[in-house]
Amino acid sequence: MKESLSLKRYRGNTKWRSFTVAAWLGWQVESNWADPFLFSIYSVARPLAAVLILVVMYSVITNGVLDTPLFAYIYLGNALYMLVGAVITGVSWAVIDDRERYGMLKHLHLTPMDGYWYLVGRGMTKLLVATVSVLITLIFGVLVFGLPLDWATVNWGLFLSSTALGLICMTGIGLCLGALTLQTARHFWSMGEAVAGALYLFTGAIFPLDVLPSYLIPIGYLFPVTYWLEAARRALLGPHFVGFPTLAWLSDGALLAILAGFAVGLSVVSWLYYHWSLHQAKEKGLIDMQTSY
Questions:
Q1: Tens digits of per-residue pLDDT, 94-111?
Q2: Is 179 left (phi over 0), alpha (psi -120 to 50) or beta?
């Protein structure tokens, strides 16, 4: 029986096949460690526990005042930042997982796959889990802490467009870290977490950039996450949003234009850097390296 045209196209599209298979594999890795019920409890409890720690610290400092614009700013920033950490670390960690834990990276690169899109697919699994965590955290904030989030007043166009561009930027950063991991022989385990932690400080995730010393504020302008968090907060809070001085002078269109520039730049840089790093790793024999750390 002759194959259908759509099946032939699917088999011939290495990039799409690499992406979908990697996403499926990543989901099996993420969810297979526990039964579905336990995994569901973990998926709900983990983000709520993280946000409650932040709320308790904020309540102690402000004597329980939670109806201020700053609280909404901090709460939303913390919730949305889950996506940043998940995508950046998810993409780069896939290299470590396949090379060090499973010892399969060398075999994967013997198959007709596209390694670049394979890493993107592995990162999307982390994104899916983080998206569920973000939704749970936002709903919890509205119901328990009175977060001024009205779905009817959300600027969905701004939110969806800025988030799509932001995710492209985060994926590009994760791919650059994954490419660097390919060439790194030691001390690469915390690379993704270290970068995500630094961005947490310098992108206004939990406090406006203008509270930093003046000589540190310009660092925040160098990262696309800064502009994505600003756009997402504006879109979600709508009339309840109170702009802080650091980025208040930028219009919504300017934020999207900056994110678009970052997205294009990081896509090109990550593609070039990944393929160069892959060549270097093969030349140095690092594809099948296992450090036993």
A1: 888 778 777 777 777 777
A2: alpha
